[in-house]
Amino acid sequence: MGRDTCLRCFRVRDLCLCSTITRFEIEPLIVLLVHPREFMKTVGTVRIVKLSLTNSILLRGTGPQFDEDKTFLCLLNDPTLYPMILFPGEKSLNLSTATADVLAAGIPANRRLAIFVIDGTWTSAKQIIRTSKRLSELPKLSFNVNTPSTYEFRKQPEVFCLSTVEAVSVLIENLRQKGLCSPKPIGAHHAMLRGFNKLVETQVGRERTAMNGK
After folding, report:
1. Residue range 51-80: mean pLDDT, rounded
2. pLDDT (average), residues 158-170
3. Most buried among 9, 21, 37, 130, using CB within 10 Å?
4. What CA dihedral angle connects 101, 105, 109 and 112, to 10 degrees?
5. Where are the domains of the chain?
6. 24-212, what's its fold?
7. Predicted confidence band at 153 (pLDDT cuts at 50, 70, 90)?
8. What is the pTM (predicted TM-score) of this model?
């Protein structure tokens, strides 16, 4: 990493996103599981989440590596936490449609939510879950996607696929609407998208410039 690279957001200083970051907190713990191939990508969005959300943890690895990670295992074994993984599926608890009774039955009131979010391609995310015995055992959490991703320079395999920062922002909004979290300051989870929008804008601009220069 060169001298002109920001050590916080991993972007070159001319394209640094740090000025767009608003630090905030929520009651649930967000655990970001980053595939090794995604960790150093400058167009990745997981670092925006990590820099914004004060109560977040970032772990790097693959499915089998997570099963041997001490921090990961401590989180799963913490009796005060209720671990869930953000991933769609027939058996997932859909925050967008769940009634109060369904939420009460699916999420213990006396334990703090610990939501695991995988940062990687759709294929790698499925592989991480499939190859991790502990992750595959976790109850799943999901939400309805009403607005397609604006991650213009990355093609999403399905209409419900979002970038990590978009997914976490929508997740927090759904948790807020169900009374499961109160972002402090209010509405700060939407502010994460400022950095994301700047990232998309600059990347699209650079790609257009490169194409015009050919």
Report:
1. 96
2. 81
3. 9
4. -120
5. 24-212
6. Alpha/beta knot (3.40.1280)
7. very low
8. 0.85
